[in-house]
Amino acid sequence: MEAFGKPGLPPTWASSDKDRVGTALGTSRLWFTLGHGILNEVFWPSVGRPQIRDLGFLVAREGFWAEVKRVARYRILEEDPASPLVEVVHEGEGYRLHLAFVPDPRRDALLIGFRLEGEGFRLYPLLAPHLGGSGLGNTAWVEAGALLAQKGEEALALVGPFTRGSAGYVGFSDGWQDFAKNGAMTWTFPRAEDGNVALMGEVREAKGTLALAFATTPEGAKTLAKSALAEGLEAVRARVRALWQGVLEGLDLEGPDPELQALARRSFLVLKAHEDRTYPGALVASLSVPWGNTRDDPGGYHLVWTRDAVEAAFAHLALGREEEVRTALTYLAATQAEDGHWPQNFFPEGRPYWGGIQLDEAALPVLLAAALKERGGLPEAVRAMVRRAAGFLAREGPVSPQDRWEENPGLSPFTLAATVAALAAAALYGFLAGEEAEYALSLADCWNARIEEWTFVEGTSLDLAHGTRGHYVRLAPPGPLGLRGRVEVRNRVGVSLEPAALVGLEFLELVRLGLRPPDDPRVLDSLRLADALLRVETPTGFFYHRYPEDGYGEHEDGRPFDGTGRGRAWPLLTGERGMAAFLLGEDPLPYLRSMAGGTGRGGLIPEQVWDGAPIPERNLLPGKPTGSAQPLVWAHAEYLKLYLAWTRGKAPPERLGRVAERYLSGRGTPRVRHFRREVPLEALAPGERLLVEERRPFVLHLGFDGWKGVRDVESEPLPFGLHGVLLDLEGHETLEFTLYYPEEGRWEGKDYRVRRR
C-alpha cells in the first residue's frame, strides 16, 4: 500500500523554544537542540545546516496513546550546566519515559537512550527529515531495524530495535495522523517519495538505545549509526564527558549565587555549542528559527552575524580564553570582503544570505582585534583585516545603511560609537601607520565631537514630561533634515516617527567604549527617559524594549510575528543596562537576576520575553520566552560579561584603554573638521580647519564672505581612496563652495556654506 497525501503539508521548523543545545566536540560535525522535551533540529555537517525538524515520541497501550511533547510534563536533568549531557524525564497517565541524549565525538551521530515505564506501553519514535535545510523534496523509507531518508547527497538513518516502521507524508499519512485517526499504529507504508515526509517506528523493548546518524549516502548513515550503537551509550557518554572537561579546565565562574553561577556555566556551553568545526570561528546567532513552527525559513538564525559573533568573542575574552578569540578573528579575516566590510549575515562557509551593510559589523572586529592585541599576540592576517575594515569605515561612514537592528539607515549612537572607537583603535594600536593613522585618528576625533549634534535632542515633549533636559535618540535618518526628519518604523505598515520619539539604549555604547563618562548629564538624562519608556516590569524581572512602536514580535493576541507585530522586551538589553549601572558604581545584581528569571524551561536566554497578559494556550507567560530565537548567543554573551563584572569587577572587554583615555581625558578634540555631503557642517570653531572630502576626485569651486575671490581647487588623494581639499577660514567669516566631478562632467548642483563661530 502506497503512502498517500503527496507531497504533504507545507513544511515548518520546530518551535524556537529550546530547552538545550549541544555538541560533542571531537571530530563529529553534529549539533543538536532539544525543545519541549524532545529532539528538535539537528545540524550537520555545519551549524548552518539543519537536517531534521524534530524527533518526537509517542507512547501507547491498548486504548490509550499520547505524544509526550504535547503532554509537556517533563523534567530536565543535567550533569553540569556547562555540559551537553542531559536527560529528560516525561511523565503522563500511567507512564514514565526517560530519554538520554548523547552526541558521539567521533561520528556524525547522536545516541538516544530510552527507558519506558508503564504496564503495556510501547514507544513510537516519530522523525521528520528536513534534509538539505528544507522539508521539501525528501524521500523516506523503512528497512529492517532502520528508518531512512535522503535528498541528493544528504542522508540520515535512525537505527534501533524497531519491530516495524512506516513512511508517510506530513498531515496525511504520517504516523501521528495514524494514531489520531485509528488510535494505534495501523499503517506500515514502506516508502514516501519527494515530499514533506515523516517516519515512525515501533519499539517493543522497554529499554534500549536509538542512533540518529548523517552521511552523504544512506549506507554511510546506517554504518555510522550502527557503529555508535556498537560502542555503546555509556562508552560514548564517557568520551563526551572527557572532552568537555578538557574544555572547561581553567574556566573560573565561581560566584556567590548558585543560580546565577549555573546560568553563567550554561552560557559558556551555549557559546561553545554554536561554533562550527569545519569552519572554526564561525559562530551562528542561534540554533533556532524564530517562530519556526509557523514557517519554513531557510536562513533562520543559524547564520553568522559578525556583530553577534564578535559579542560572543568578547565574552570569551572576558573569560581569558584568548584562543577562541584568535580563532574568531582568523575566521573573520577569511570572510571579509575585499573592500573591508562583512555581509549582513552569511552561512558558516562564508556564503552571504541577506545583502544589507551595517557599519558596526565592520567596526566591532577592529575593536576585538585591538582588545586581543592589548593582551598579547595577534595573527598577521588579522592586521591586514583591520586595515581593510578601517578603510571601509573611513570611506563609507558615518551614515550606516542599516542600524544594529537591521531596520533603518541613518546615524545611530551605537554604530557611531563603534565606528569612532574602531578608527581610533586602528591608529592608536599600530594597525595603521603614517598618513593613514593620522587621517583615521582625525576622522575619529571629528565624528566623536559631532555625535551629539547628530543624535541628541533637547527640550522635546518627552523631556518636558519626564523632567529631562534632552536625550539621545535611537537613530537620526539620513538626509538634510536629520533630527527634524522622520524614521519609518519597520514591521509597522505606514508608521513613521520623528527621531525624538525613537528612544533606545544605543547611547550606552558611548559609555561602554569610553567615549563618554557614565555620569555625563546627557547620558544620565537618557537613562532616566529610557527607564521610564522602555523598561517593563514582569513577574520574573525587568526587561527593555528596543524602542517605542517596535513591530518585531508577536501580535497583541499572541499570534506569531508574520512580518508585522509588536516588539517585546529583550533580556540582552537588560544586560546592556546592567553594565551601565556597573560603570556608574551601582550593583548589577538585579539585572543579572532579571536575565536569569527570563530564561526558558531549560535555562536558556531568549531573544524576547512576553510582556503582555498571559496567553497560556500559546505558551506566552509574562517574563518568559516568546516564539523568538532561544537561545540567543548575543544575550548569553551579555550575561557572561555582566556576570564577570559583578563577580570579578571586570570592566567591559570592549573598552580599549588607549581609546577611552583619549576621549575621557579630552585629548580627542578635533583640529580638522571633515565635511561630507551626507553630514554637512555649518560652523568651524577657532583654530579648526576644514577638509572637504569625497569618494572620488572633484574640483572645489569656492569663495569667501559671500562668494568673493572665487577660485577652483582640484582635490588631492587622501588615505583609503578618498579625495579632499584642506581649507583654512582664518581671516574670513564664511566659506561658500560647490563641487564639480570632472570624471563625470557634472556639477554637484548644490551650494554649501560654512561659517566661523
Automatic annotation (TrEMBL):
Residues 3-245 form the Glucodextranase N-terminal domain. Residues 266-327, 350-641 form the GH15-like domain. One of its GO terms (biological process) is carbohydrate metabolic process. The keyword Hydrolase applies. InterPro entries: 6-hairpin_glycosidase_sf (IPR008928), 6hp_glycosidase-like_sf (IPR012341), Gal_mutarotase_sf_dom (IPR011013), GH-type_carb-bd (IPR014718), GH15-like (IPR011613), Glucoamylase_active_site (IPR046966), Glucodextranase_N (IPR015220). PROSITE patterns: GLUCOAMYLASE. Keywords: Glycosidase, Hydrolase, Plasmid. Pfam families: Glucodextran_N, Glyco_hydro_15. Transmembrane segments: none annotated. The keyword Endoplasmic reticulum does not apply. One of its GO terms (molecular function) is glycosyltransferase activity. PANTHER family: GLUCAN 1,4-ALPHA-GLUCOSIDASE, TREHALASE. Belongs to the glycosyl hydrolase 15 family. This is Glucan 1,4-alpha-glucosidase. It comes from Thermus thermophilus.
